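Now for today's protein.

===
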Amino acid sequence: MFSLITGIALIAFGVCLIADLGGIATRIHAFFTSFMNPGQATPGTIRLVGVFAALVGVVWVVTSFPLG
C-alpha cells in the first residue's frame, strides 16, 4: 500500500513538473538559481526531472501489485 501511494504521489508530482502547473518548474528553477550557478540549466531541465519522477512513480505503482 505504501508503494502504491508513493508511486501515485511521484506520478502526480512528475506531471505537475512536466506541465509546469502553477509555474512550479519555473519557481523551483528560480529558487535554486538564487544560491547556485545554474550553468546551462533552464526551467526545461526541471521539467525533464518531472519525466523521470513520473517514470519512477510508474515503477513504484507496478511493483505494488502482487505477482500472479
Summary: The chain is about 75% helix and 0% strand. The helical segments are 2-19, 24-33, 43-64.
